[in-house]
Amino acid sequence: MAVMMQAFYWDAPIQEKKEGEWWNHIAEKVEDLGKAGVNALWLPPVSKASDNRSNGYDPYDYFDLGDYDQKGGTKTLYGNRAELEALIAKAHANNIGLYADMVINHNSGADEEETNPLDGQKRWTKFKPKSGRFPRDWNCFHPSRYEEFMIEGENYAGFPHLCHRNPLVYAAMYDYARMLIEELGFDGFRFDFVKGFGAWMIGRLAKYRYVKDGAEFTPYVVGEYWSGTEDIDAWLEHVNQLTDNQIAAFDFPLRYKLKDVCDTPNYDLRNLTDGGAVVMKRPLHAATFVDNHDMGDNVIVNDKMMAYSFIMVHEGYPCIFWYDYYNNGLARPGTPNGIDALIKAHDKYAGGDSEILHADPDLYIMQRVGWKDEKAEQAGLIYVLNNLGDKWSGTSVKTKWPNQKFAPIAWDGHDTALPDERTTDGEGNAEFPAPPRGFAIYAPV
């Protein structure tokens, strides 16, 4: 019963003429987002990068949140610390948490080039941040006296690669994480490029006993491991041995399947059932998504609501992309055809196990069986995905509900006419259709 939003896209403040004002811009939206049912916002990197117009994935001064005149200006691309704190306070007042983007693999924008005595190579590794916190030199990067050969992870874009085994670096990462949680009030972390460093570092930062509002606090933690299912599964297995199964990963394999659903003609919907996604094997550790800031020319172009409908009714922690919600106009508030309607369906009905009732090349039908306890319940639903482009399609399936009436609660496609209500027979059978190149969600009433 949770939906996060990635509250930015690449160069968002520049594209929307909100340079240095992005925190304020998000703050203007949080009341409506809270009412829509969004429970958390993933924010871009908050620290000063190698340039004050950078998106933040090339960090320079971790402890300058937009208050020191360096790297081209005082504010970051997104704002300053006071504006960030105001955003966090307003989000919390609207029951929305905040996840900080952690870029701890590499740095950029060094003040001096220096020679690393271990290999004789010159690199830009002398950092003199104006915050006065975490000054560093070659020994904070690979190769270092603490780890001459980088035995864990991959290098990123030729940037200096931090050596976390150096106690100075290790301590700085803890200071940074504590600042985000304990001083600023963040509720979790999204770790960037986790291929680039040892899983043990995330494990340590995740399991630190943070204190927030006078009590111990455990953050939500999700990693960006951009790879296939087996690689992500191996990383999750390793990192969660360190964290009592605390850490999730973004489900890139599912995302690429969903792009094929939307953009590849005649894609076989049975591919959605083959288990080749994080959410299929590890639903509690899957953060599902449709697009993000890194997709560039690989964004989904056609019928994107089909992809959103899938992640919003299945297990996992779905993440909505700001650009889709606002710039592409897919929120569609007040209608049954947009992301807002899917959030409501997710929150009220998408509970219990997923059970596939039918799958063929052009039609996929699934039920969520629902659950309840003394405090809450989610009633369950029937989900239909139709890959045919020219007609409504459905088939009779055996549900868990005998003699039950169902009403459509969300739908979209190349025909947005209201689907008919359905009633199962004494054995739970009924036909459930969906619009062409679209979906329909039915809930028991």
TrEMBL record:
Residue positions of the active site: D192, E224
Signal peptide: none
Glycosyl hydrolase family 13 catalytic domain location: 2-346
Binding site for Ca(2+) 1: N105
Chain residues that bind Ca(2+) 3: D362
Protein name: Alpha-amylase
Taxonomy, superkingdom: Bacteria
Cofactor(s), by name: Ca(2+)
UniProt GO MF annotations: alpha-amylase activity; calcium ion binding
InterPro entries per the UniProt record, alphabetical: A-amylase_thermo, Alpha_amylase, GH, GH13_cat_dom, Glyco_hydro_b
Family label: Belongs to the glycosyl hydrolase 13 family.
One GO BP: carbohydrate metabolic process
Organism of derivation: Edaphobacter aggregans
Pfam family of the protein (one): Alpha-amylase
Keywords: Calcium, Carbohydrate metabolism, Glycosidase, Hydrolase, Metal-binding
